Amino acid sequence: MTGFIRASTVVDARFRNSHNYEFRSNCMSKSGINQESTRSVAVDESTLFSLLGRAHTLAILNEFVIKDGESIRFGELQDTLELSPNTLSRRLDELVEAEFLERTQYDEIPPRVEYEETEMVDDLAPVFQELETWMERHGSDQLECF
């Protein structure tokens, strides 16, 4: 994060399970850009599956896989996925906290917030490609779920 100066640091040592602690830090750049990052020691399996199993999480991550490294604005995600602002905001916060996404808030009027995938999402691209192949083979017609 070149060019970023630390505006404030909040260490939140919430006990997640017997092995994981979370650390949050907020950084403000000289240009008024606020970036929040969360660092975790490890993500256990139950936490990962719980997060990925929440409503709309996979659809959100799929948008980042499709965009292939491009940042996406909150409003763009809301329009594409047709989610309520509260639901989308909660899911994005959870994905930032789990280090799947990075959030950048620009000090502008109107406010602008962009999200970018991390290496973790980039590494999930083959999984989404396999899911697409699976859907072509066993799509909604066969599953009768849509």
Q: What is the topology?
A:
Elements: E1 4-8, E2 22-29, E3 33-40, H1 45-52, H2 57-67, E4 72-73, H3 74-81, H4 85-97, E5 101-106, E6 112-117, H5 119-137, H6 140-143
Antiparallel strand pairs: 1-2, 2-3, 3-5, 4-6, 5-6
Helix pairs in contact: 2-5
Structural write-up:
The chain is α+β, with helices and mostly antiparallel strands and 146 residues long. The protein has a domain of 98 residues: Arc Repressor Mutant, subunit A. It is built from six helices and six strands; from the N terminus they run βββααβααββαα. Strands 1-2-3-5-6-4 form a six-stranded antiparallel beta sheet. The chain is globular. The chain starts with a strand and ends with a helix. 10% of the residues are buried.
Concise overview:
Helix content is 43%, strand content 24%.
CATH superfamily membership of the domain at 42-139? Winged helix-like DNA-binding domain superfamily/Winged helix DNA-binding domain
Q: Could you describe the largest sheet, including whether it forms a barrel? A: 6 strands, antiparallel
Strand content: 15-25%
Task: Could you tell me the CATH topology label of the domain at 42-139.
Answer: Arc Repressor Mutant, subunit A
Query: What is the helix/strand order?
Result: EEEHHEHHEEHH
Quick check: average pLDDT? 76
Number of helices: 6
Sheet with most strands: strand arrangement = 1-2-3-5-6-4
The secondary-structure class comes to alpha+beta
Please give the share of residues in helix: 40-55%
Q: What oligomeric state do these chains adopt? A: single chain
CATH class annotation of the domain at 42-139: Mainly Alpha
